[in-house]
Structures are given as structure tokens and as C-alpha cells.
Amino acid sequence: MRLTLLVLAVLIVRSDLRAQDAAPADTFAVDWTMDVDALDSPPQGAFVAICPPGGAAQASIWGTDTYTDDSSICLAAVHAGELTLTAGGAVLVEIAPGLAEYVGTTRNGIASSSYPAWDASFRFPMAPSALTTPAIVEHEYHGDWYTQPKQVNAPVGARVRFECSAGGTGGNVWGTDIYTDDSSICEAAVHAGLIKRANGGVVHFEMLGAQPSFTGSQRNGVSSMRYPGWPGSFRFFTIEKAPTPQP
Fold it and tell me: What is the CATH number of domain 2-134?
């Protein structure tokens, strides 16, 4: 019964944000950085969160469909397909138990991260989620400037998030745009123009299969080498960012 009343509250507030004043006590006005712990009083079971319009993707979230309770509520709602950054709005949030693992994905222009076990979660019972927006599973892997994609041990088609440390150097590169899977991830990222050695940064790549040949080239201070056919390869891709709200 209580959950039904909260669903009605969401629908009412969505139809008229001024109805927030008449919403039940377990309705919270939140900003785009707030997580569950930041609420004035700890919610029990479920609650309604009202996100203001004109949001920005500047907070962090972990998980897919079920998120760690220190994730941004509003940004997770965009990731789940409940809201947009531009419009904001009201969402029904349900407190959930912690999971043994949270899988990062990219949905609706928002990238969530993977994380191991966490003690508390939340989810959106009204979200369309994967029914309308397929999730792209993204693995996370930690290494150094000598780390190669084949060390990740991810299948063809898998997408991987990798962070290159600042001031790094090292490793060989074979190929251009598409690289052998025994190339240095970070050196290849410099070659591709995605990062600079001095700053490092996060890159995303996709595991590919065998290629008949790889073309060498000189780019951004990195010399990649040519090579004949090789059984594994990868290429970088860019996470699509949500559009910046217009004033």
C-alpha cells in the first residue's frame, strides 16, 4: 500500500513540480551530487527523490539497475532511463541490500563504474532500464603502462575501462586505430591522441578478434610498428557524454 502511494506521489510531482509541497514526508528534494547517506533522515524501504532540472554529469555512480548507496541518486536515475539531465523530475527510489559485485555499464550517455562488494544499494522500481536501452557491460582492469589488453582476459566484444597513470611511459605498439592485443594500452592511447604521457587519464577500449594485418605509423610522438596477421586486437572508443543543458 505504501509503495502504491509513493508511485502516485511520483506521478503527481511529475505532472506539476509545484506539487512537491503536498508530497508525503518521505519525499526529498535532492541535488545532482547527493547520495542516500546525504539525505536529512535515513529513508526506510522506499522514498521519492525530486531532482532539479539542468543537471550535470559530474558525480559518480556504481552499478547497473542496482546501484551502491553512495552513488548519485539523480545521475543513477538518468543512467536507468528514469530522467534526463535537462528536465530532472521525480523518481521512486527503493532501498536494497548490498551486492557481491556491481557491474559498470554505459546507458543514456552516462557511464557507471564497476565495484566489488558493498553493504547497501538502491534501485528504481519504475525504471524502464534494459527494456528500452541495452546496457554495454564494461569491465575495469588495473595495471601500468606495460599492461596489454590480452592480460585482461576479456572476450571479444567486451569493453574495458583502464586508467593510465600520469607521467608514465613504456611498452610497444603495433597497429594504427586497431592495435594488436599485445600492445601497451597506454602507449597506444597516446598514439591514438586520447591521452598525454604527462597527464595520463582514463581510456575505454573494445576487444576485437583476429586481423589480417596491422599498419604502423608515427603519431603524437609514438612510433607504432606494422605486423602481419595476429589472433587478437583492440580499438579505443569514446564514452558518449550527455548533452549539456541549454540555459
Answer: 2.170.130.20
